[in-house]
Amino acid sequence: MSFSRNSVLFIILSILCIILFLLDILFGGFFIPFSALFDNTHETYQYIILNFRLPKAITALVTGAAISLAGLIMQTLFRNPLAEPYVLGISSGSGLGVAIFLMASTFLPFALTQSGWGLIIAAVTGAIVTLLLVLVVSFKVRQAVSLLLVGIMLGQIAASLIGILQNYTDPDSLKLYVIWTFGSLAAVTWLYMKVMLPVIIVGIIIVLIIQKSLNGLLLGENYAQGLGISIRQTRLLIILATALLAGATTAFVGPVAFIGIAVPHFARRLFYTSNHQIVIPATLLCGGILLLLCDITSQSVVPGYTLPINSVSALVGAPAVIWIILKNKK
């Protein structure tokens, strides 16, 4: 009975994902008729679909899945329902890299070329530096909660440095940074996707490899060790997977709030299980569905305008976090 119910749920989620994916292609600055998806005679529609709408829809699907999966493994590692993909400071490191790239020209004797690739390289560099710091700390501490606190402190340090840069930079550079923090699914072109997709796929593969170890961690580190699970190796792989999943999405899309916290809980609640062999694919599907829905909403609420994806995802995810807190209190 359980297998049958799960199979039906996965089929429903898959169909819903396909429907929302198609709707995300159709909605935008103006509505594209459904018939234009399969009619090559509409050259203008085909150009818009292939070069703008389709990459954006794929980015929404992949980003939602990646951030949600990163949130799931963070919640498992720290055994904390409010853990998120950015809790290790990796997103803050990316933000600091972008802030230095966009705003430090005021302090530097030379100007940085503010190209799209330059922005991505700056974000990746910031994430890698933070990742290396977290990995060094992970070798020194035994308890996951200590690693959590170090990640939070690294995030605070990065935020403080960003605040200093914001205080002294010129208004134009500050505006560019603020726009980056809003997040943008439309910024990912086919060229960028050739880099982003392989990185995310590697992160997903790592999570699939360690899914049995993740199940062991749910029962506590001592029990997991009794099952022969290497806690240090599993922790390192979780950190690496999170860095790939959250780091890649932040570098190319910008920060996307609350999806990583909320979606794993939706998946567990929907399937009535914490078994990662079920929750991992469920989280990937639910994450893609939710961010596709957020993207459609961001383009539909105010005609002629596109709302920041980070704001829309926060409006969806924040109530979910409140619900989690109230549920745990009971």
Question: What tags apply to this protein structure?
Answer:
330 residues, single chain, ABC transporter involved in vitamin B12 uptake, BtuC, mainly alpha, 0% strand
Protein model, in words:
- The structure is a single chain.
- The chain is mostly helical and 330 residues long.
- The chain has a single domain, classed as Orthogonal Bundle (ABC transporter involved in vitamin B12 uptake, BtuC).
- Helices cover 76% and strands 0% of the residues.
- It has 13 helices and no strands.
- It has helices spanning 2-26, 43-78, 90-103, 116-140, 144-168, 171-182, 190-209, 211-217, 221-226, 231-253, 259-271, 276-300, 309-329.
- α3 (90-103) runs parallel beside α5, α3 runs parallel beside α10 (231-253) and α12 packs across α13.
- It starts with a helix and ends with a helix.
- The model has no long low-confidence stretch (mean pLDDT 86).
Write the layout of secondary structure elements.
Blueprint: H1 2-26, H2 43-78, H3 90-103, H4 116-140, H5 144-168, H6 171-182, H7 190-209, H8 211-217, H9 221-226, H10 231-253, H11 259-271, H12 276-300, H13 309-329
Helix pairs in contact: 1-2, 1-12, 2-7, 2-10, 2-11, 2-12, 3-4, 3-5, 3-6, 3-10, 4-5, 4-10, 7-10, 11-12, 11-13, 12-13
